[in-house]
């Protein structure tokens, strides 16, 4: 539905109610004119005629079934006969009008226009940053729920009305404006806030790659400064998006293929990556590393092609089972159903190191891995899960890797939006080598355990660290990083967090900065730890008194009144660019 279809809900209603309203007007006009023409008598029995005002007044309250009586005089027989005719005529007119009104309220176009107008008003009244989410499937639901939990607003476009209506049932802390419309239309994207001054980015998550491509092009042309995060499963679509500068293209299958390749040649690096990108609080269980050997792949769709490419790059042999192998297929191709024991036996599943269930059907994937495990209990199993609704079935089967595209895309989007420094840090992990990653993993898990930590970014600027920025700019102090990470409740203890990555204002980087690294204005920090440490650090960065206690150990009274009293009585004095507590006894001696 295009927003130009309706100029206004009011005008649409008036157009649909035009005939009933004209009918009512005519009925009122005929009734009033007839009542003025029919002769009557006054209180003294003299002939008289009703004027227009009294006629209109009488017809008005009679037509609405109120009925005050005959005015200004008792009616004659002729007038009563005319009134009887008018009453039945108005009943017919009102019945026709009310029926038309009820039909209008049930009309799908009218209801769509009402929703559109409410949506426009909701977008127009937004006065806080928000993200435009296109597609409210499983991935969109995860994204909206996560954005809501961290206090970020979202606006949702979903082409299927039944999916869009589910948004109201998911119990978000704030109302999320949603519209059932085709996000491929540029006018719909503009209507949803693409060019709104508070729009922070576009997230294209539909299950149609061509629709995501259209959204990416529209965002690139109409709002080139906004980041666009687009899902693309087909390599051709992803390349097309990249050709016109789409900033973030997320292919869940390609992303998992890289993870699996990393797990094959650098298991510790993969475990570290999995620990850092896990859902905070969830226990990340170390699993057995993928074996090197021959693999069996069942299904050759988008996921299957990515897995074949990855295994070829790792130099691993494979056998592919598919219903329709290519014409030039060689000995490694087997035509058949991967869920069939005969096809698996033909692929020598007994001697295989691993199996990958790549099809679009969850039940078929489960049948493949269950059959394969019965034939070879030692198989390393990679299982694709398409629908979150089947989670109970996948929990019942212990696979080594479960590929859930919606979760992969959601985590990647959230990492880009909330912790932009995480991606370059993970790239550094892959380049540092297995020994380095293993050492860091041991250090982090020994301190924080195997529960996935909270990972966040902090920037030394006026918004995120005003107290620290004022201290650095006014006093010119050299503040070590480790001093900032002391507990504001008791500075003898360190906060349960660690700085993993530091980016200076000149874009130079420091991996795993030590506690003596000086903090500078404009620094961006990537931290990992628990949520309590995150809240405590935010308090330190925002509150000057808390920051002073963390850095020097001196507790300055909070609040303007207490600070003024403290300065008046000489409890504190400034020297050498720092607050130094004056000795109480010396203070009293000077008074004497």
Secondary structure blueprint with pairings:
Blueprint: H1 9-16, H2 18-37, E1 40-41, E2 47-48, H3 52-63, H4 77-106, H5 108-124, E3 130-134, H6 138-149, E4 153-158, H7 161-165, E5 178-180, H8 186-191, E6 199-204, H9 209-222, E7 228-231, H10 235-243, E8 248-250, H11 252-265, H12 267-277, E9 295-298, H13 302-313, E10 318-322, E11 333-335, H14 341-346, E12 354-357, H15 362-375, E13 380-384, H16 391-396, E14 401-403, H17 405-418, H18 422-432, H19 434-448, E15 454-459, H20 466-475, H21 481-484, E16 497-503, E17 509-511, E18 524-529, H22 531-542, H23 544-552, H24 560-568, E19 572-575, E20 578-581, H25 584-591
Parallel strand pairs: 3-4, 3-6, 4-5, 6-7, 7-8, 9-10, 9-12, 10-11, 12-13, 13-14
Antiparallel strand pairs: 1-2, 15-18, 16-17, 16-18, 19-20
Q: What would you say this structure looks like, in words?
A:
This protein is α/β, with parallel strands linked by helices and 592 residues long. The chain contains 25 helices and 20 strands. Strand 13, helix 16 (391-396) and strand 14 form a beta-alpha-beta unit.
Concise summary:
The protein is of the alpha/beta class. Helix content is 49%, strand content 14%. The protein is built from 25 helices and 20 strands.
Keyword list:
592 residues; alpha/beta; Helix Hairpins; Rossmann fold; six-stranded parallel beta sheet; 20 strands; 49% helix; disordered N terminus; disordered C terminus
């Amino acid at each position: 539905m295009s927003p130009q279809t309706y100029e206004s809900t009011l005008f649409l209603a008036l157009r649909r109610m035009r005939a009933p309203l004209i009918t009512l007007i005519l009925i009122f006009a005929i009734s009033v004119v007839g009542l003025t023409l029919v002769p009557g008598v006054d209180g003294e029995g003299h002939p008289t005629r009703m004027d227009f005002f009294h006629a209109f007044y009488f017809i008005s309250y009679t037509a609405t079934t109120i009925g005050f009586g005959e005015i200004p005089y008792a009616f004659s027989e002729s007038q009563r006969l005319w009134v009887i005719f008018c009453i039945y005529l108005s009943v017919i007119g009102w019945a026709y009008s009310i029926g038309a009104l009820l039909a209008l309220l049930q009309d799908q176009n009218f209801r769509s226009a009402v929703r559109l107008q409410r949506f426009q008003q909701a977008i127009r009244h937004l006065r806080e940053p928000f993200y435009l989410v296109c597609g409210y499937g499983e991935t969109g639901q995860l994204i909206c729920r996560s954005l809501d939990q961290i206090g970020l607003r979202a606006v949702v476009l979903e082409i299927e009305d039944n999916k869009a209506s589910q948004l109201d049932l998911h119990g978000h802390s704030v109302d999320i404006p949603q519209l059932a419309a085709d996000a491929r239309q540029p006018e719909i994207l503009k209507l949803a806030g693409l060019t709104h001054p508070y729009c922070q980015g576009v997230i294209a998550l539909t299950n149609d790659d061509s629709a995501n491509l259209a959204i990416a092009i529209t965002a690139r042309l109409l709002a080139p400064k906004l980041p666009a995060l687009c899902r693309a499963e087909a390599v051709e679509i992803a390349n097309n998006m990249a050709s016109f500068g789409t900033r973030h293209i997320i292919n869940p299958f390609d992303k998992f293929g890289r993870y699996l390749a990393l797990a094959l040649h650098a298991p510790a690096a993969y475990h570290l990556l999995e620990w850092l990108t896990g859902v905070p609080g969830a226990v990340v269980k170390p699993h057995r590393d993928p074996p090197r050997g021959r693999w069996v792949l069942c299904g050759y769709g988008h996921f299957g092609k990515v897995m074949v490419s990855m295994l070829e790059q790792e130099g691993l042999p494979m056998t592919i089972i598919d219903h329709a192998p290519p014409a030039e297929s060689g000995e490694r191709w087997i035509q058949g159903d991967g869920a069939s024991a005969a096809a698996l036996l033909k692929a020598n599943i007994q001697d295989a190191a691993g199996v990958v269930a790549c099809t679009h059907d969850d039940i078929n994937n489960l049948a493949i891995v269950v059959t394969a495990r019965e034939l070879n209990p030692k198989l390393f199993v990679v299982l694709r899960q398409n629908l979150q609704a089947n989670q109970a079935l996948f929990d019942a089967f212990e696979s080594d890797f479960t590929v859930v595209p919606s979760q992969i895309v959601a985590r990647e989007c959230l990492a880009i939006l909330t912790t932009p420094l995480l991606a370059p840090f993970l790239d550094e992990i892959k380049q540092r080598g297995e020994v380095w990653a293993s050492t860091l993993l041991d250090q982090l898990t020994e301190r924080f355990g195997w529960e996935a930590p909270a990972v966040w970014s902090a920037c030394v600027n006026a918004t995120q660290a005003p107290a620290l920025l004022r201290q650095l700019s006014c006093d010119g102090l050299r503040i070590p990083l480790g001093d900032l990470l002391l507990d504001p409740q008791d500075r003898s203890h360190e906060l349960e967090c660690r700085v993993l990555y530091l980016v200076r204002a000149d874009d130079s980087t420091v991996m795993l900065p030590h506690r003596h690294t000086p903090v500078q204005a404009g620094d961006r920090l990537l931290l990992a730890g628990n949520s309590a440490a995150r809240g405590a650090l935010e308090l330190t960065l925002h509150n000057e008194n808390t920051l002073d206690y963390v850095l020097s150990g001196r507790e300055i009274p909070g609040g303007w009144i207490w600070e003024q009293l403290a300065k008046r009585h000489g409890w504190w004095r400034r020297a050498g660019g720092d607050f130094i507590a004056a000795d109480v006894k010396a203070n009293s001696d000077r008074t004497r």
